[in-house]
Amino acid sequence: MSFLSPKETASGINLVNKRRYPRTSCECYAQIMPLGSQLGGVNHGLSHDLGEGGVKIRTFRQLPVESRVMVQLGCPEQEESIKVTGSVVWTSQVYAQDQWLMGIRFTDVNDSARARIQNLTSLVSIDPELEDSSPA
Asked: What's this model's pTM, rounded to 2 decimal places?
């Protein structure tokens, strides 16, 4: 009889956390604007977690993986919104709902936005041992 480690699935896939930055679970209102494409207008949603490297957002409209986007986050803990550029690295439909989760990796974060993200993640960080395995 063999047992799986807490970081493996039945398929043998290792689910080790690959994030380089701490994340926080604060909910921020999100506006996701596709860049340089014909993917439509602004997509709205809520962030589920946020770190210097990216964000996971719940939204009603899926964007294709590798889409370049401008993300504007309005967080209750911040007076100014956080504006960053990134790319969609994964999507997943929320089970039995017409909603999507998207992982967005940041590709361009100015110093002001980085400082606001660092401030948020210093307040409450997610323990990587307790989180899901979706990379963002």
From this structure: 0.74
